[in-house]
Amino acid sequence: MAEEILTSCTCGGATFVHVKDGKITKIRPIVFDDTDAPAWSIEARGKVFTPPRQTSMGSFIVTQKARIYSENRIKYPMKRVDFDPNGERNPQNRGKSGHVRISWDEAFDLLESEIKRIHKTYGKAAITASTSSHADFGLLQYKMGAFGRFWNMLGYSQLMDNPDSWEGWHWGATHAWGYYWKLGISDNFDMLEEALKHTELLVFWGVDPNTSAGGYNGQDGTRWRLWCKELGMKMVFIDPWCNFTAGTWGDKWIAPRPATDAAMAEAIAWVWITEDTYDHWFIENKTQGFEEFKKHILGEEEGGFPRTPEWAAGVCEIEARDIYALARLWAKKKTMLCTASIYGVSSACRQPYGTEWARLMVFLLSMRGLGADGCNTWGGASMAPPMDMSFRMFGYGDNGWDAFGLVADESAQNTVRQKTYRLLLPECVMNDKTEWIGEGFCGHSLDQQRTQQVCPLPKEEGGAPIKMIYRQGGSYISTMTDTNRWTRMFQHPNLEFFVTSDIHYQSETKFADLILPACSGFEREDICEMGAPGGYGANDMGANFRVCLYMKKCIEPLWESKSDYDIYVELSKRLGFHDRYTEGKTIQEWIRKIFDASSLPEHISFEEFKEKGYYIVPPPKPDFKRAVSNKWYYEDRECDVADHKNPLKGTDRAKMMGTPSGKIEFVSTFLTKYFPDDKERPLLGQFMEPWEGKFSPEAEKYPLVMVTPHMRFSYHTHHDNKSPWLDEIPCHRIKKADGYAYWPVRISHEDARDRGIKHGDLVKLHNDRGAILAVAWLTERVKKGVLLCYQASAKYDPLEPGKAGSIDRGGCVNLMTPSRMVSKNAPGMACNSVCVEIEKWGA
Amino acid sequence: MAKRYGIVIDVARCTGCYACFLACKDENCGEEHPGYTVAQPMTGQQWINLVEVERGTFPKVKLSHIPVTCGQCENPACMNQAENGAVYQREDGIVMIDPEKAVGQKQIVNTCPHRMIFWNDEKNVPQKCDMCAHLLDNGLSRPRCVEMCPTGCLTFGDLNDPDSEVSKLVAEKKPYVVHPEYGLEEKVLYLNVPKKFVAGTVVFKDTDQCAKGARVTLKGDGFSGEMIADEFGDFWFEGLDARMNLVLEIEADGYQKISKTVRTLSDVNTGDLFLEKK
């Protein structure tokens, strides 16, 4: 049979998929043909910039073929050998005992009977279900679709996600500039043209765009940063780790001690105040509480002291003169702070008191006049080329937890009120009562941040202890904090049934009582727009083109795997709501309905769209009116950006920020009203010494401070440990003589020398929470006292399987990160200032 | 005129993303291209690879990733030592290893000073990058690595066509071969391969501020460079040869001149240099 070229979309870009004889032979970027839309161009400073007419991909996506055919796939439904639903369940053996192949019928029988038993015995709230982000893409079959529709229709204890990549913005910056509908980060529209035309300086704070921006939009934005360089923009990087973008393209690297970034920000403000170089008009008219901030910075408050560069230099362990120089340069040049919007959310926001750093970023932006020509927030210098946002296409999050609901007669609504929280799932299972605050992603109002939560809820309110977990894809042992907690939870007798449905064996798959094989995104059909999350990420675009895709079923599901939708269809049949779940439609019919509801029919017939597989939305017309993020605020106009989720647009608050006062708040109105006594997230945003770090009690035993940012060669755990090709990339994994590919940890020459560690040595990295084996990579890219070890190894490989606290050979650094949250009322993860020790392992 | 395919690699544009490396794996691992090459084993061969180079000392650190691949040499060492015509050059300049004639010829692997020929144990044959000749012959305009590169670090085309992008780059930027001493006349040419640097920070000692505007000169061994220290008092002289003996001089009005000898045994970070008042 001749080779066919089909189309798909991934969490790292849109792809051509070559298929021959029912087998995928290659994964390529989509290269546009003559009939596709032309590229846009931007004229700036005498040059014309235009992107190539093709898509790009996050490099991990290029491993798809190996990932799809990986030996690590879950091939058949499996049941744990010593799990007997009618007798001994042996929870203590989870993670130790093996599994035996069963049929899909047996698997569905077991699922059906267990769900019914638990519903009858405890109630619907006794089941929680969770899903990973960014495994495979698709509007209908991503987690907000098939998964969300099923569980919400059935009723379950929702496991609320913490905003894991932008904690400080969500729990902190919302109280400075609102933007709660963007979970605390600014929208980004028309930023590329704005920067190319006006900007002179780019400040990347804890941001490594060349590493982290491969997701969703492929690597399109990487070329934009080269354009910035071509125009002579200087790039300054602030990061304890000389990250990949800093090392290759940076002009200046400043390395504060982990989790002290906020002190450096205060000192920059001190320079601007004492040298009187800040935007007075903006501060007076567009902000509130500056006088108090000024007093704090100058040390005029009671018990205060001036936040001078000399003070910050001591705290951050950098040179005071570098702070002066940066502050003066920033004041003089039109500057983009390349954080505070998506792809620039920064590792600095995931640290103890990360809320304060994020608030201070907003303060600094305000002092420069947020929205003035060339002065703005531009996430990772990765967002917002010229785009026609009037073309209607949906993102998977546009209808909350039921993407089908965009076009269905009935949109699923959960009738169970009880919630669990991702960071506290082990406690919710093991403890009698677990309390926390907030509603996870608080995207509807600031008020959601003060909801008091308890699990279980009282029985009379429909509450029940958690007895069953259904896990769709991914790994929390690899991605959450202090994750030996998960081993303890899985083995706890309270947990009667643990099901996992996944494409590959992940870190906790082997703990499951029942394992279901799900197929990849290349083995099912879907429709989508590349990189379009919708919802809180509505119109966040960092790709050169809007690409709408018919995601083809490139091959039949491998082995006995099934699509998530097909699994839930069968389960809904057995649980009696099949007709409501499917509304009698096949997945192709759902796709057609989405197509019909979009702008696509005005431009292309369904048949042609399905045949060709993609449609490129034409670029904006030449007379297109740009609407740059935050510029409307600077110019005192109504918000005019293409963010249809901004709840203030079209109201009498359309000229305002989303804070209670409508202004940018140095002193938060919301916190003053509801958290007046919170010393850990004070009313005025400010630096506090991190609760874990060089000067915390942990440091006595564990004197090195480790940062664990997002890595490049895997999206969470979805690519690492799936393709052997990645094991040949030494900055990702290093193969030792024993043939095992270990996780690298970067260490300064000085710290290594003090411990007798040489480059390439196998080392044990540990603290009281956990331990991993890794390979030492000696470098000048961290300074003495600091370690860099990327998060989300997908391989949990304990030396003693099934034992909490066992040394992990696979490199899951989150075994060591603290479960303590950002602060008392900011329930986010703080994984970038972790006290550890390192020692040579073995002979 | 016949085509002559070549690649210009601009190292300054490489971010180290390995998309080229992975695209090559995708194209060749487990995929036989009859008449061109046997399938590449799933692991162990890197027809295009990146060499990560870290230079300097904290905090004056530079990172580069140098893509390395078969040079498609005009004067290929591998061809000269292959028996039976097992290595040949196509009319378009691509150097091919005939997957049948080369069976058993392990000596070919060791002929390449760039170490870009690999031995396939299972098939008992040497193999290497052939610029995706099987695709070029079937209408694709560029090899997979070039198509996948997100930054335009790799430019592929016909060196004999003066209007091709690659020829324009050659004319304009004068890319070079990294090891001319091998005499192979590679058609994979480089720009911005990192050499040695001399960098440092100048500080006004009396104010402890960055000495923005200080005049920095570096001279010796035929090199002469001048620059103004930037806002951070930093200066970087890039592109220096190894083992140069140089004199670094720093001047600022009202301050005593600093003079210092440096030697580029490796990259030089002078650290902070303090200008004292006259």
**Helicity range of chain A:** 10-25%
Annotation, overall tally of beta strands of chain B:
17
Uncertain segments of chain B are none
| Total count of helical runs of at least 4 residues of chain B | 5
Instruction: Give the DSSP E fraction of chain A (strand runs of 2 or more residues).
Output: 15-25%
Oligomer: heterodimer
Shape of chain A: globular
Q: Tell me the β content of chain B.
A: 35-45%
Largest sheet of chain B: 4 strands, mixed
Q: Mind describing the biggest β-sheet of chain A? A: 8 strands, mixed
Measured as a percent range, the helix fraction of chain B is 10-25%
Distance between the ends of chain A: 55 Å
In short:
With 843 residues, chain A is α/β, with parallel strands linked by helices. Chain A contains 24 helices and 35 strands. The mean pLDDT of chain A is 97.
Question: Could you characterize the architecture of this molecule?
Answer:
The complex is a heterodimer of chains A (843) and B (278). Chain A is of the alpha/beta class and 843 residues long. Helix content of chain A is 24%, strand content 17%. Chain A contains 24 helices and 35 strands. In chain A, the strands form ten sheets. An eight-stranded mixed sheet of chain A has the order 7-6-21-20-19-8-9-16, with helices on one face. Chain A has a six-stranded mixed β-barrel with strand order 26-32-29-31-30-35. In chain A, a hairpin with a 2-residue loop joins β4 (42-44) and β5. In chain A, α9 (261-274) runs parallel beside α14. The longest helix of chain A is centred in the N-terminal third of the chain and has 18 residues, at 104-121. The mean pLDDT of chain A is 97. Chain B is mostly beta strands. Chain B has five helices and 17 strands. In chain B, strands 10, 11, 14 and 17 form a four-stranded mixed sheet that branches. The longest helix of chain B is centred in the first third of the chain and has 10 residues, at 19-28. Chain B starts with a strand and ends with a strand.
